[in-house]
Amino acid sequence: MAHDTAHHESNTGRIWKVFFILSVITIVEVFLGIIKPAFLVETTVISMKLLNWIFIILTIWKAYYITWAFMHMEGETKGLRRAVVWTAIFLICYLIFILLTEGDYVYEVFKAGYKSWDF
Amino acid sequence: METTVTKTGTEDKIWGGGNKPLKVSYGKMMMWFFILSDALTFSGFLAAYGFSRFKFIDSWPIADEVFNHFPFLHGVDAPMYYVALMTFILIFSSVTMVMAVDAGHQMKQKKVIIYMFWTIIGGLIFVGSQAWEWKNFIKGEYGAVETKGGQILQFVKPKEDGFKRVKLEEIAVLDTHQERAQHEKKSGIWYEQEGTLPTYTVNEIKAGFAKNTDLLIRTQELVPDIEALKESGNASKIAYATRLEKELVNPEERGEKAIYKREFSLDRLTNDAIGIVEGANLQHNEYGTPLFANFFFFITGFHGFHVFSGVIINIIIFINVILGTYERRKNYEMVEKVGLYWHFVDLVWVFVFTFFYLV
Fold first, then answer.
1. Whether the Cβ atoms of residue B165 and residue B142 lie closer than 8 Å to each other
2. A22 in contact with B at a CB cutoff of 8 Å?
3. Of A110, B31, B97, B214, which is the most buried if we count CB atoms within 10 A?
């Protein structure tokens, strides 16, 4: 197969660097999750705690490194990369938007007294 | 005819055929599209989890309380340390996998064998850890009482700084006269039987609660921002805030579980309690809403199944590497393909970890 005959050089340096980045991000996440700084918990951005936004952004950052460096997406052609990544991102954002909006709506309906929770 | 077919005169044109625009082999491309579809399946599950969580946003269990065990540290509150360790093990097995792929590019069979071996070991440790997490969750720790409406009532006791959870066994006053036999198939209609009976009866817990006057009840509700509710101008929200302020011990502890004053605790227990919950399963969950348990079992179970199948596929490819299949084939693309799947499993875990344990 014509595939990959060109690159035989070793990438171990980059692999260890990415592992280091992933470890640091995980440690930061766990650390924040345990101490839960009051400031981050009390500040709300777009109806979610700032702390949760930080967790989600760090997670996406990790996902980027895993996909790009470990799964070697950075080395694939633009066509394949977009076919996989854009499809996933578009559909996931759409689904999350719809379901979370609906979930919040149902919560408000419950709260407004259609269903009593005080048994 | 033949001559017209073999020569179209468009061979060097971009649409002339024989062109590979994605510059990737069939197998690898299909692995990518499989991963894409599997990623969408997992996002469906996680989005559904988000839906249920938003629906019960003010009564969802706090993950730190549920997953706080660490092997060999009994009774030590170790929130998240173990999942953090599991995450590291999985990330590290991803690293050894990518090292195996890298060694494969250089046709170094021995190195591929060593790295794949460590990947498999990492995967097995991870699956084992997940089983252990399940065991702790199923077994539960403190136990709780369930109300008519399916709500959970837990028991706490004040201590110097805040409150301490109390186990059912510390509360129950055993009633030796009353024995409740478990209904079995043999003692009735053959297709009817009931599950394991709880260790205590509701009456034993009620008796113990009446006796220990410092015990209080903690519900699954999270204390809302009472000031904000009062200023909302919505009648039912104001009524809710006023009720909480009157009945709670900790109305100012926003985001914590609501703890009721002794009189209201006693009231709720005597009027509402109908059953005992120990641990978690698909119908009952001592930590809060059963939906949390359902999603936990389903999503981590589905992920664990992926890890398990990943280990199996890795073992198959590992054997092929040892047999020298890819040496003879003169390329290690197979290792790369299973590597993609293995990294995907790690990728999913990164999200499961965030949404189940952190957020």
1. yes
2. yes
3. B97
CA distance B81 to chain A (A): 8
User: Three-state DSSP class for A50?
Assistant: helix
Q: Give me the mean pLDDT over the A29-49 stretch.
A: 88
For residue B4, what pLDDT is reported?
52
Other Cβ atoms less than 10 A from the Cβ of B240: the count is: 21
B156 DSSP β-pair partners: B165, B216
- Nearest chain A Cα to B87, which residue? A26
Interface probe for A, chosen from B68, B95, B270, B349 (most Cβ of A below 10 Å), is B95
- Tell which B residues from 67 to 106 touch A, by Cβ distance under 8 Å: 79-81, 84, 87-88, 91-92, 94-95, 97-99, 101-102, 105-106
**Model ipTM value:** 0.90
Q: Do B47 and A95 touch (CB under 8 A)?
A: yes
**Contact state of B88 with A23 under an 8 Å Cβ cutoff:** yes
Taking the Cβ of residue A33 and every Cβ of chain B, the question of whether any pair is shorter than 8 Å is answered with yes
pLDDT tens-place string over residues A57-86: 999 999 999 999 999 999 999 999 999 999
Q: Do B331 and A4 touch (CB under 8 A)?
A: yes
B134 pLDDT exceeds 50?
A: yes
Q: Assess contact for B53 and A103: CB atoms under 8 A.
A: yes
CA distance A51 to A35: 11
**Mean pLDDT to the nearest integer, A2-8:** 47
Sign of CA dihedral B141, B144, B150, B151: negative
How are beta strands B257-260 and B216-222 bridged, if at all?
antiparallel
pLDDT of residue B160: 84
B183-214 residue pLDDT tens: 777 777 777 777 777 888 888 889 899 998 89
Distance from the first to the final alpha carbon of chain A: 68
